[in-house]
Amino acid sequence: WHYKDSSDYNNNVDETKYDVEHGKSWAVVVLRQNTTRLINETVFTLINTSRTLTSPFTIVSPIVVFYADGRNSFTVNNYVLPPIRSAIAIASAQYGQMLRSTLVQNLSSSSDSSSNRSVQLLNTFQIGSLLVDPLSAQYQNLHPNAPFVGQLATTLGYIYIYLISAMVVGGAIKFLSQYVPKVHWVDVIVFRVFNGFFQAFIISLIYSLIVLWLFGIHSGSLFMRYWMFNWLSSMVFGIIIVLFTTNLGPFGNSILTIFIMLMLAGSTLQLALELSHPFYRYGYGLPLYHIINGGRHLLFNSYSNFGLNVGVLLAYFFSMWLIASVTSVFWIKRQQKKAAQQSQQAKTEKKEQKITTVVRR
């Protein structure tokens, strides 16, 4: 909890949204100015009046809570809002008890006229809700994590993209392996690059169309941004798979599985890293964290350092693409050299076999 004076926000309630909009706070609790003064004046007016109040006491919610569960629904609804609700409930109960005690004490010492006492009791009933819950709160969700398909799209959806990428990339590598000895290594590398771009292009297009259709979004500009972001995400997944499987072979699948588990643990699928054990802060440097938070920003317009998200993904893609290209050239040349040696050895054995046959004849 960080306590600030209203003057820090120019005494404007709406300006407090800035901290939530820009990720400086998970939620902001605002107690409106002069709230307790207005409530106290109302109670003392009720005590001192001898006429029935024609209009009951009304006031806008004394407390306003701004939050955005689109940033991380699990964290906001399970770790941010519960302590806020609890603190407001305790403060309201204590303040309400003080008001009721003050009211009873002053009414007992006021005029004993039965008509005046009846008026005071009637007025008390009119502000009953104020005496029970004087500090009622209004909750404003600036960027809701809704509809539910959005939650699936920013969690299980990206796991689905990874699995599809793994199957497609694995199939492409297996298909190419039979042609490596017969095709120049440059052609193999070029085919792998263009094939990876095209496959990620199609996967991200289909995924983006389905999500935005179910989400009810018809903005062309948002579609292009979301599609391009998912295309980049799919290419990052693909190049990670290529890097592990090309260099480590069958053993690479086990290492890749461990790497994916680490990414999932540090990706804020549920609990935000700020509230997690410090060990999981490594997630800030892994691509899945930036993919999920970037996707939430595009779908829910919630806070995320989107420029940083895209920058990290681009850095991962180009660095891993460079490493994968260099290592692929090495392994392809080695495989082609081995295939050439085996072919030469087979020809030599066949030639020797023919010579032996001629000698026997």
Q: Can you walk through the features of this model?
A:
This protein has 361 residues and is mostly helical. The protein has helices at 17-21, 35-48, 73-109, 114-126, 128-132, 148-153, 156-177, 185-215, 220-248, 250-265, 287-300, 306-360; strands at 27-31, 63-67, 137-141. Strands 1-2-3 form a 3-stranded mixed β-sheet. The mean pLDDT is 80.
Describe what is shown at a glance:
The protein is mainly alpha-helical and 361 residues long.
List keywords for this structure.
about 350 residues, mainly alpha, 2 domains, 12 helices, rod-shaped
Structural class: mainly alpha
Unreliable spans are: none
Question: What percentage of residues falls in helices of 4 or more residues?
Answer: 55-70%
**Beta-strand proportion:** under 5%
Largest sheet: 3 strands, mixed
Topology:
Layout: H1 17-21, E1 27-31, H2 35-48, E2 63-67, H3 73-109, H4 114-126, H5 128-132, E3 137-141, H6 148-153, H7 156-177, H8 185-215, H9 220-248, H10 250-265, H11 287-300, H12 306-360
Parallel strand pairs: 2-3
Antiparallel strand pairs: 1-2
Helix pairs in contact: 2-3, 7-8, 7-9, 8-9, 8-12, 9-10, 9-11, 9-12, 11-12
